[in-house]
Structures are given as structure tokens and as C-alpha cells.
UniProtKB/TrEMBL annotation:
Protein name, per record: MazG family protein
Annotated source species: Metallococcus carri
Domain NTP pyrophosphohydrolase MazG-like: 140-215
CDD domains to which the protein is assigned, alphabetical: NTP-PPase_MazG_Nterm
Signal peptide feature range: none
């Protein structure tokens, strides 16, 4: 009586990157089986010089075949990328009914790394935009998606302020979808194509550049010092003509209260004090934004909270 080993490997990791125990089990096995020989893992095993056979059977028939093979030698089954739905239950029933069932082991040959599921999201987005995918997704452009990006960003803010963590997780996924969508659209541009890897590479370069206290010889040690360092580096990256423009880089579509907060923040870093002595409504509004900043709060968030309170009152 041999052993039956179900070798599980992450489809998000290069197929040949298996653990030492996995390769030992494959080399020692009397029989190595897989559903399809053209799946990545069977291909990697075959490339390594290990002979394998294919068995493309329904779960119950496959369970019987695996148990029969294991009656005479050690068998390794290479789990399919879809994890072979129904096989585990079928094997449990088959082995329970057997007089002398083989020993069954699940051997994990590779594990997902943090962020590995992002590869799934990229793949799904690619399928949706490719021929044979979703006609609506294929028809979208950067311009047509703009409103959805704004909506998802605002809905994410609402989820944060509600304190509902499950809702926040969902909304962050919707924002991520927009990033993947725009990157996939950009990849189809005939004149200037770029993709999600270019987006990620540019982000990584920016994070490394703006965190010299972590990745370089910077000496910032407090949150305030880190923020000041970030803003200095960011200012150096701007064209010279924009460095004294307090509105440079601030999108006009941003909430007026958030624009005011950012301008006041830039003035404070530059050592400039705004004139808030007037009695007109605009000056008084700006003074309220400044007062909120002095308390470490956001006038925009405070106003939203008050609007929700008033709307909920009876």
C-alpha cells in the first residue's frame, strides 16, 4: 500500500518555485498524475524531467482512480489551478468505504505572497477588456470613467467616517477597480501605452524618493519632520514656476474647504500668515477653516458630520 499526496501550489507563484519537500515527494513518487498536462505546474514538473500522466475525470471517478493507483505505489496528484472542485469530498467518501485506504497527505508546495491576489484582479480586468469579455467594459474610456472614480472616492470617505470596516473594505476594492480599469485602458493606447506595472513602478519610485529617512540617509524621526521632508521633496520636483503658486497641483474639483485647508497648510510651511481680519463671509469661512486646522481637525469633515446630524434629526 502506497501513500497518496495531494500537492497544492499557488497559481500566483511561478510553477517551478516549489518547496524542497514538494520536489522530494515528486522525485520519490512511483506515479505523478495531473488533470491537464498543459497547466503550469505539470509543465514545470515535466520540464524538470519527472514523468507524469494525465487523468481528466469527474471527481468520483478521479477519486477511485487515485485510490487504486495508491494501492500499489506512492502517488502524487498535482492539484489543478481551480483546486479540483469536488475531489476532496469524493476522496473522503472513497477512502471511508475502503478496507485498507492509503495514507493521504496534503502537501503545500508554494504559498501566496502578500499582495498576490492583486494578480487575480489584474487578470480579471484583462479578461473583461479583451475580445470576448464584457462589451460595456470594452467600451469605456478614461473620460467615461471619471465620474465613477469620483463617486468611489467619496463613498470610501463615507465608509471611513461611518466606522464600518466591512463597508470600507468593499469601497477600497471599488477604488482599486478604477485604478486597474484606467491602467488597462492605457495599455490599449496606440500612441503612448503603459500598464499597471508602470503605475506601480512609478509609485514605488516616488515612495523611495520621498522617504529618505527610511530608504536613504534622511534624518526625520517624528511625523511632523517626515511631513516637512515630504513637502520639501515634493516642492523640489515641481517646475520652478509652480513653487510659489499656492494653488499649483490642487485640483479645482476638490471641495472648497479642502482647497482652503491645503492653501493654509502651504502658507504655514512657508511662514506666511493669511489676513483673516475682514468681516466678509468669505474671510469668516476661511477663518473657520484655519480654526479647525489649529485644532488638528478638518473643516470639510466637520461640516459633513454636522450635515449628517441635521439630516438625521427629527
Amino acid at each position: 500500500m502506497g501513500d497518496l499526496t495531494l500537492l497544492v501550489a499557488s497559481p500566483r507563484v511561478a510553477a517551478g518555485l516549489l518547496s524542497r519537500d514538494a520536489w522530494r515527494a515528486l522525485e520519490a513518487a512511483g506515479t505523478v498524475l495531473a488533470r491537464h498536462g498543459d497547466d503550469p505546474l505539470p509543465q514545470a514538473v515535466a520540464t524538470a524531467g519527472i514523468a507524469l500522466e494525465t487523468l481528466d475525470l469527474p471527481p468520483a471517478a478521479l477519486a477511485r482512480a487515485l485510490a487504486d493507483r495508491a494501492a500499489s505505489c506512492d502517488v502524487v496528484w498535482l492539484t489543478s489551478p481551480d483546486a479540483d472542485p469536488g475531489l476532496t469530498d469524493a476522496l473522503a467518501g472513497q477512502l471511508t468505504a475502503a478496507d485498507e485506504p492509503p495514507t493521504v497527505e496534503v502537501l503545500v508546495g508554494s504559498w501566496d505572497q502578500p499582495g498576490a491576489r492583486l494578480l487575480d484582479a489584474v487578470t480579471v480586468m484583462d479578461v473583461l477588456r479583451s475580445p470576448g469579455g464584457c462589451p460595456w467594459d470594452a467600451d469605456q474610456t478614461h473620460d467615461s470613467l471619471t465620474k465613477y472614480l469620483l463617486e468611489e472616492a467619496h463613498e470610501t470617505v463615507e465608509a471611513i467616517e461611518s466606522g464600518d470596516r466591512a463597508h470600507l473594505r468593499e469601497e477600497l476594492g471599488d477604488v482599486l477597480l478604477q485604478v486597474l480599469f484606467h491602467a488597462r485602458i492605457a495599455a490599449d493606447d496606440a500612441d503612448d501605452p503603459w500598464d499597471i506595472d508602470d503605475v506601480a513602478a512609478e509609485l514605488v519610485a516616488k515612495l523611495l524618493r520621498r522617504h529618505p529617512h527610511v530608504f536613504g540617509d534622511g534624518d526625520a524621526t517624528t511625523p511632523a519632520e517626515v511631513e516637512a521632508s515630504w513637502e520639501r521633496i515634493k516642492a523640489d520636483e515641481k517646475p520652478a514656476r509652480d513653487r510659489d503658486d499656492l494653488l499649483a497641483g490642487i485640483p479645482i474639483s476638490l471641495s472648497s474647504l479642502l482647497i482652503a485647508d491645503k492653501v493654509l497648510s502651504r502658507m504655514a510651511r512657508a511662514g506666511r500668515v493669511p489676513d483673516l481680519t475682514g468681516d466678509d463671509l468669505g474671510t469668516r469661512l476661511l477663518a473657520l477653516v484655519a480654526a479647525a486646522r489649529e485644532r488638528g481637525e478638518s473643516a470639510d469633515a466637520l461640516l459633513r458630520a454636522e450635515v449628517r446630524r441635521v439630516a438625521a434629526s427629527r
